[in-house]
Amino acid sequence: MDLAIAGKWALVCGASRGLGLGCAQALAHEGVNVVMVARRADVLESAAEELRTQLGPQSAVHVVTCAQDITSEAGRAAVFARHADFDIVVTNAGGPPTGNFRDWDRAAWIRAVDANMLTPIALIQATVDGMAARGFGRIINITSSAVKAPIDTLGLSNGARSGLTGFVAGLARSPIAAQGVTVNNLLPGAFDTDRLQTIFQTAAQKTGQEVDAIAALRRKGIPVQRFGVPQEFGAVCAFLCSPWAGYITGQNILVDGGAYSGTF
């Protein structure tokens, strides 16, 4: 299926590995000009070079290393200095640490809200009016299945990402919808990423169980009996960025192997 987005420009955050990389790969394979953003220059350039090798001479893969992080004004300025007008923006930030809410001070909450709510909003602010003026735009926010089914140890993530979700619900239904701009959230469940491994290792340290045992128990709670892979997550993202998904906006789309058991 031709997604009809070749030649568009996409900004993909957290694109050096995991779900962000999966999205960048899927878009690049569709002929999109992809600006990959991350903090670690070596990991980012390695991922981009591998993608360029896969695509060959026609590839249009660019990198911006945000040493000061995309959460800072300087980091965002570096991105927009590389390219200003994006048709597609995929916001993505590493989740805040797990733990007990009693241990989180104000600074911990501010960091979580800044990375997982305020930074996506700042990127949307910087790009959405240009999208509307051109008559096409796709904003995808990678959030978490915990927005739909909160997990007690992920309180920082639950709170910050839910704030973004509420903001998006209003924005998606504003006049930009009639100007060809859609805004959706992708809610990943358990994907085989560094983030998931970190969660397992933290749980192992607290409980004394083996990491493999914790992982096996988590897999049993997923109807498809496996963890997701970033490439299939990226494929969902790429479809939502296409004209064929133009009638989908303001939605929270679970990609979790059926783990969420609710009807709605």
Protein model, in words:
There is one protein chain. Strands 3-2-1-4-5-6-7 form a 7-stranded parallel β-sheet, sandwiched between helices. The protein is of the alpha/beta class. The chain contains 8 helices and 7 strands. α1 packs across α8 (230-240), α4 packs parallel to α5 and α6 packs across α7 (211-220). β5 (137-142), α5 and β6 (181-188) form a beta-alpha-beta unit.
Index terms:
globular, 8 helices, single chain, 264 residues, alpha/beta, seven-stranded parallel sheet
List the helices and strands and how they pair.
Layout: E1 9-13, H1 18-29, E2 33-38, H2 41-55, E3 61-65, H3 73-82, E4 88-91, H4 106-134, E5 137-142, H5 155-171, E6 181-188, H6 194-207, H7 211-220, H8 230-240, E7 252-255
Parallel strand pairs: 1-2, 1-4, 2-3, 4-5, 5-6, 6-7
Helix pairs in contact: 1-8, 4-5, 6-7
Low-confidence stretches: none
N-to-C series of helices and strands: EHEHEHEHEHEHHHE
* Alpha-carbon Rg, integer: 18 Å
Backbone structural class = alpha/beta
Task: Work out the helicity level.
Answer: 40-55%
Spatial gap, N to C terminus: 29 Å
Described by its quaternary structure, the protein is single chain
Number of helices: 8
Mean pLDDT: 94
Tally of DSSP β-strands = 7
Q: Give a short account of the largest sheet.
A: 7 strands, parallel
Question: What is the general shape?
Answer: globular
Work out the strand percent: 5-15%
Strand order of the largest sheet: 3-2-1-4-5-6-7
